[in-house]
């Protein structure tokens, strides 16, 4: 076990909140999710690792993906590991990952339709947070809905 006395108070609080996200208690999960958003992008890497690990329970993995979506970090190296979830065995994890990636206009497997130029992930106008703008995000979600399940 780690030497807890060597950890800072913010690190210990983050550890406690991450553990609260793991349990099967909807109220406690909601509190943990809200508190994690207060940390900004700091817990994103830990949430990605929790979501990617097949050793974690499905519900915990999905909750981690949902919290990442609420935090809305800019797409970058911390989120790249989410690509492996395209091949996750569990359908709920695959679908939660697909919803999250669609927020970044990264609908894997979407064949662009010539009549819908915004369905192509490369054609999106992005806001300052790295997310597709709302009008584009809606068209991406519609395109993602047409993606065959992996």
Tell me what you see in this structure:
By secondary structure, this protein is an all-alpha fold. The chain has 2 domains: 1-87, no CATH class; 105-150, no CATH class. Helix content is 50%, strand content 0%. It is built from 6 helices and no strands. The protein starts with 8 loop residues before the first helix and ends in a 5-residue tail after the last helix. Residues 109-126 have low confidence and may be disordered.
Topology:
Elements: H1 9-22, H2 26-38, H3 44-52, H4 58-71, H5 91-103, H6 134-145
Helix pairs in contact: 1-2, 2-4, 3-4, 4-5, 5-6
Quick recap:
Helix content is 50%, strand content 0%. It has 150 residues and is mainly alpha-helical.
Average of pLDDT: 78
**Helical/strand content category:** mainly alpha
Cα distance, first to last residue?
A: 39 Å
What letter string, H or E per element, gives the SSE order? Answer: HHHHHH
Low-confidence stretches: 109-126
Radius of gyration: 17 Å
| DSSP helical segment count | 6
Largest sheet: none
Say how many strands there are: 0
Dominant shape: globular
> What percentage of residues falls in helices of 4 or more residues?
40-55%
Count of distinct structural domains: 2
- What percentage of the residues does DSSP assign to strands (E)? under 5%
